[in-house]
Design the sequence.
């Protein structure tokens, strides 16, 4: 399932973003088994993203001070 980076703004700074945390925030359904972060939108908080990301999303996450950990 594709998740645009604009939805990651729902997380507090320095949060871990993974499949379970996306489910907990109701960004994806409870039955989803895979997700990939895409670069549509902006991100202003540093997050630790533990999901596959597009090149554009990775660049925006790192620009906001976050990390992509896969």
Sequence:
């Amino acid at each position: 399932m594709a998740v645009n980076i604009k939805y990651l703004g729902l997380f507090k700074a320095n949060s871990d973003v993974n499949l379970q945390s996306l489910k907990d925030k109701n960004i994806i359904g409870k039955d989803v088994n895979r997700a990939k972060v895409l670069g549509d939108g902006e991100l202003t908080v540093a997050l630790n993203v533990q999901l596959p990301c597009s090149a554009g999303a990775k660049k925006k996450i790192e620009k906001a001070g976050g990390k992509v950990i896969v």
